[in-house]
Specification:
With 604 residues, the chain is α+β, with helices and mostly antiparallel strands. 43% of the residues lie in helices and 22% in strands.
Length: 604
């Protein structure tokens, strides 16, 4: 054995020292990088603080006056500040700082917030403000290929925004510094509002190329809801048009009135058994039997299928899409197109269209005759025809159109249904399907739906105020929900009520045994499934009501009469079970005037 072979081996220490030295140098590097990143973080925080007022200006502009009210200079300043902040968060020292235990979470949170805000400004707000249909219309037709590319890229940007907000939701805020929590709090309002808009717009944008005929010709039926004669979903559907879409050309090919469709004794599309019984309370079928009653039940997918069947029966056309709009929704859209001129030279604008279509037209054509009906329907369809021409010509400010679309959807004045399952799913996600009220993970719905029972146009003069309250929370999860609705008839403000000009507006009051100018409304109160309706009161007095259900939802049906100048107060109490009674969502009939809702339900 050699001498060297007997020498003690000391290789273990160098083997430990070498990696330790590497680790130490890495740790020192991280420490140095963390210090550098911390300095940079101060700058990023300052950029975030400077951008918060700009984001609030953008939010206030969009919320208060439409996207056209957004200050482009504020958008540019916000974009520049976020570009600088984003560049800082992409440096190597920032990357290392994020990996330091505990403190790294603050760097990650700041970067996430910056990236989310950057997506809002750079990928959503700036492109929308720059967007215009100018150049998308060539020789009187829309360039569907370019519209498709634009729609899909916009949908991707909106989906990225939703992803960014979801990342913010996943942050563990318990380990964050107060300054970081404060910065996140300032960003959350604008980001969440933008995300809410994205959730509704993105599905429609993805489906838009198909709606515009990218894959072949489309036939779209547009139902005109006349909210001066109320129905559950808004108003009676009399006039309707067929819009044929092919290779970028939108052509109004047929315009029909109520008299062009056959009325049936029974629903043309079967109802659930309980709903069928409910809507025959007065001895005849009041839903699904005629074009006038397609909006009588608060379920647009059902009503649209009825309308589709009636169009097929009357015209031999099976629609690829059924839309329903009211004049208030049209007024929102006219903000984007500007005034339109009808064939007779009449100019209609966002300020005049509601009064003209829901009141003025009946003074111009006052008789209770088929001739008057057709003249009125011709005015309604002429407006839709003029709007289709404006859209085809590219004469629309897209930011204002988006603002108007969102407002119409929020007010449930724009409804859509497609027989195609993929398209219908997109419409549901966009909030325009108009289905029966459903429980959600966050709230229970309570519906109060109106229907004119005089054949009048008096609901132009209806004002409605609603108050939603809830009692204490029982240990078994049951809670009493109380909905109060004040219904006011303001026709007394018209000095010419007794003149011939108001004949059509007053309706068939003599047939109904009512003095002229009196409203008579059928009211259906829809409680959530599993609830029990306890009582219905009119002006504080408990009244009998017809009890029924619609696809399992308890419904109370009552009729009220309202004299000119009078107000009737309707109270409905129901016991509702389930954890989601922490919040109650009111859904009602969109009227000519916005329904004022005071929801004072507090969580348990």
């Amino acid at each position: 054995m050699s001498r060297s072979s007997t020498r003690p081996r000391r290789l273990s220490r160098p083997r430990v020292l070498i990696p330790s030295a590497v680790a130490l140098s890495v740790l020192l590097g991280i420490a140095g990088a963390s210090v550098s990143a911390a300095v940079e973080a101060m700058s990023v925080r300052e950029e975030l603080e400077s951008v918060l007022p700009e984001l609030e200006t953008i939010r206030a502009g969009g919320y208060g006056g439409g996207t056209d009210a957004i200050d482009p200079a504020a958008v540019e300043r916000a974009g520049d500040a976020l570009e600088r902040a984003l560049a800082s968060t992409q440096r190597p020292d920032w990357w290392l700082a994020e990996r330091v235990p505990v403190s790294g979470a603050n760097f990650e949170a700041v970067r996430t917030a910056v990236e989310a805000a950057h997506v809002v400004v750079d990928e959503v707000v700036e492109p929308v403000l720059a967007l215009s249909l100018d150049g998308l219309a060539v020789d009187g037709r829309l360039d569907t290929e370019r519209v498709g590319r634009l729609a899909r890229s916009s949908a991707r940007a909106l989906e990225r925004l939703e992803e960014q907000v979801a990342r913010l939701d996943r942050l563990d805020r318990s380990v964050l510094l107060p300054q970081v929590v404060s910065a996140l709090g300032g960003l959350e309002g604008p980001l969440r509002e933008a995300s809410s808009l994205a959730a509704r717009l993105a599905p429609v944008l993805r489906a838009l190329p198909g709606f515009l005929g990218e894959e072949g010709p489309r036939d779209v039926v547009v139902l005109f809801q006349n909210s001066a004669e109320s129905r559950a979903l808004g108003g009676i559907a009399g006039a309707s048009v067929l819009v044929h879409v092919e290779e970028g050309v939108l052509s109004v090919t047929r315009t029909l009135g109520g008299a062009d469709f056959v009325s049936h004794a029974d629903p043309v599309v079967p109802l659930p058994a309980d709903a069928d019984a409910l809507y025959r309370t007065e001895g005849y079928a009041a839903a699904g039997t005629s074009i006038h009653e397609v909006t009588a039940r608060p379920d647009f997918p059902y009503g649209a299928q009825v309308a589709s069947r009636l169009w097929e029966e009357s015209q031999g056309v099976v629609p690829d899409l059924v839309l329903a709009v009211d004049p208030v929704a049209l007024s929102h859209l006219l903000r984007a197109t500007g005034p339109v001129v009808l064939a007779d030279g009449t100019e209609v604008s966002s300020e005049t269209v509601v009064d003209e279509l829901l009141n003025g037209v009946y003074r111009d054509h006052p008789g209770l005759s088929d001739e008057a009906n057709r003249a009125q329907d011709a005015t309604f369809t002429a407006v839709v025809q003029a709007l289709a021409s404006q859209l085809q010509a590219g004469s629309m400010e897209v930011p204002r159109a988006i603002d108007g679309w969102v407002q119409a959807v929020d007010e449930r004045r724009l409804l859509a249904w497609s027989p195609d399952r993929v398209e219908e799913r997109a419409l549901v996600l966009a909030g325009v399907s108009g289905g029966l009220p459903e429980r959600s993970s966050r709230s229970v719905p309570f519906g109060l739906y109106l229907s004119d029972a005089v054949g009048s146009k008096l609901e132009y003069y209806l004002r409605q105020q609603v108050r939603v309250r809830a009692g204490s929370c029982d240990v078994d999860g049951t809670r009493t929900v109380m909905v109060t609705s004040e219904l006011s008839n303001t026709i007394d403000t018209e000095p010419e009520l007794d003149t011939e000009a108001f004949d059509y507006i007053a309706g068939f009051h003599e047939r109904e045994g009512l003095p002229r100018g009196w409203m008579r409304l059928r009211v259906m109160a829809y409680a959530p499934d599993g609830a029990v309706i306890r009582s219905v009161r009119v002006d504080g007095v408990e009244v009998p009501y017809a009890a029924g259900s619609d696809d399992g939802r308890p419904v109370a049906y009552v009729v009220v009469a309202i004299a000119p100048g009078a107000t009737v107060t309707l109270d409905v109490d129901a016991d509702v079970s389930g954890a989601t009674v922490d919040a109650v969502r009111f859904e009602g009939t969109p009227g000519v005037r916005a329904v004022e809702v005071d929801n004072v339900v507090e969580p348990c």
